[in-house]
Amino acid sequence: MMGFKIMPMRHQDLAEVIFADKMVFGHTLGFETLINELDVNPFAHYFVMRDMTTGNLAGHVSVWIDSPNAQILNLYILPEHQGKSLGDELLEFCINYLEKFNVENITLEVRPSNFKAIQLYEKYGFHQAAVRKNYYDNGEDALLMLKKCEVIDK
């Protein structure tokens, strides 16, 4: 087994990411918005995780960096790849990547019902900073989670 590799998202990844977004979240930003994110938005940084044995998508993470702050927009591992510590690997990659930009604060929203994700984020130093009422389409609140990062002066 060759393992998994995280790489910048490319145009040829879009169809697979859109399909995965719909499966995981029930919706997607859509082709045009994702093209804009990849080609135009200077704050957007999108990555895919691939199974190097099959070449199939295993996960995805997207962030916006507006230094000194960053927001994780989406982070997921597809169901067939869960339970392999890939969520840890993808989140660690994301945090390490953001450190290169001297990010001081990382935020994200998560459903209160998503216990596994909350445990993962807390494991990496995120804590609940606020609640966004009726945030999701179904009326569920969102927990705003925050991680303070150590900035190393260069």
How many structural domains are formed by the residues?
A: 1
What is the radius of gyration?
Answer: 15 Å
Order of helices and strands: EHHEEEHEHEE
What is the CATH superfamily label? Gcn5-related N-acetyltransferase (GNAT)
The strand order across the widest sheet is 1-2-3-4-5-7-6
Alpha plus pi helix count: 4
The CATH top-level class label: Alpha Beta
Number of strands: 7
Strand proportion: 25-35%
* First and last CA, distance: 39 Å
Largest sheet: 7 strands, mixed
Mean pLDDT: 93
CATH topology: Aminopeptidase
CATH architecture: 3-Layer(aba) Sandwich
Spans of at least 5 consecutive residues with low confidence: none
As a percent range, the share of helical residues equals: 25-40%
Q: What is the 3D shape?
A: globular
Structural class: alpha+beta
